[in-house]
Write a structure and sequence with these properties.
- The chain is an alpha/beta fold and 338 residues long.
- It is built from 11 helices and 13 strands.
- Helix 2 packs parallel to helix 3.
- The structure holds S-adenosylmethionine and iron/sulfur cluster.
Length: 338
């Protein structure tokens, strides 16, 4: 039998295959996490500037059918704060790829069954503290009970594996590393500890606020021994943004995302589309490619694909945090789509 031609894939200028799409559905959010948004919020995009669910789904379909993208994550801002977000899930589910959402969990208790029925596979829920007073202080709203109920609802709905994302910031919540690990172990949740990145709109990031992934693992290892020593776990390289380490007692695993101290850039396979329809090839990119304007002017799929491919061809080799020539992007994490 004649060999089948290889399916076309999207490859950037550094030889990395791109196959993971982050779709931001809104820049708005009801929380004010200290590492993301200032207390007064940001200037929200006018509604007319947001891509419609049909427009978002068209771009996602293009990436999947043309280049075989295998994962889509819906994010924001807070994706569950956009009305009827399950309708987007319904549009994306037939694409048959891994379909996930990152959420702050505040609306999950009510939405989890609806999202699952619409075709969502799994969720990552952000949770940086288990103390109600501290949640209010770090996230700007008294919403810890809702988030905990949201996590339970996601588990009950089978949106698994339910992952818990915690951004650890020195002096703010690093004293809860072990408590967060215990919380996740007790509930069979996958914990993802994230290094604080210079993407906060309030400009609070300083290098000394970063707790390195190595330090996080060391501190957990002292209480809940890991199957591999932290240094070894981080030195071996990892095939995804998180370095995952099982606990020695077999009760789950912890993952760390060392975006600052040991970034995943050389294996990065992501692109992002912002809520207003711009392609960003890196969280720290300084350039964006507009798709909304051409799309609303009647661009064909071939035209849009050409624009995405050109943006990907120009994807940089990696971020430059810590170097003298590092320039912070103008948009914060909530405006890009984390
Ligand atoms: N609102 C949703 C949430 O919080 O999960 C989704 C959007 S949020 C921007 C996506 C992820 O980015 C969250 O896990 C959040 O903790 C993380 N994040 C936001 N700002 C960050 C920063 N400066 N450094 C590291 N992670 C950050
Ligand atoms: Fe909202 Fe998520 Fe940013 Fe927190 S991290 S302010 S929940 S967008």
């Amino acid at each position: 039998m004649a060999p089948q031609p290889a399916a076309p894939v999207l490859v950037d200028g550094h030889g990395r295959r791109v196959g993971d799409l982050r779709l931001s559905v809104t820049d708005r959010c009801g929380l004010r996490c200290h590492y993301c948004m200032p207390p007064e919020g940001l200037t929200w995009l006018p509604r007319a500037e947001l891509l419609t669910y049909e427009e978002l789904a068209r771009l996602a379909r293009l990436c999947v059918t043309r280049w075989g993208f295998d994962g889509i994550r819906i994010t924001g801002g807070e994706p569950t704060d956009r009305a009827g977000v399950w309708r987007l899930v319904e549009l994306l589910a037939p694409l048959g790829v891994d379909l996930a959402m990152t959420t702050n969990g505040t609306r999950l208790e009510a939405l989890a069954p609806r999202l699952r029925d619409a075709g969502l596979h799994r969720v990552n829920v952000s949770l940086d503290t288990l103390r109600r007073d501290r949640f209010r202080e770090l996230c700007g709203r008294d919403a810890l009970p809702q988030v905990l109920a949201g996590i339970d609802a996601a588990v009950a709905a089978g949106l698994s594996p339910v992952k818990v994302n915690a951004v650890i910031v020195r002096g703010r919540n690093d004293d809860e590393l072990v408590a967060l690990a215990a919380f996740a172990r007790d509930r069979g949740l996958a914990l993802r500890l994230i290094e604080f990145m210079p993407l906060d709109a309030a400009g609070r990031w300083v290098p000394t606020a970063v707790v390195s992934a190595g330090e996080m693992l060391e501190r957990i290892h002292r209480v809940f021994p890991l199957a591999r020593p932290p240094a070894e776990a981080l030195s071996g390289g990892h095939d995804e943004p998180a370095a995952r380490v099982p606990y020695a007692d077999g009760r789950g695993e912890v993952g760390v995302i060392p975006s600052v101290t040991a970034p995943f850039c050389d294996r990065c396979d992501r692109i992002r589309i912002t809520a207003d329809g711009k392609v960003r090839t890196c969280l720290f990119a300084l350039e964006e490619t507009d798709l909304r304007g051409p799309m609303r002017a009647g661009a064909s799929d071939d035209d849009l694909a050409g624009r995405i491919a050109a943006a990907v061809a120009g994807k940089g080799p990696g971020h430059r945090i810590g170097r003298v020539d590092f320039v912070r992007p103008a948009r914060s994490m909530s405006q890009i789509g984390g």
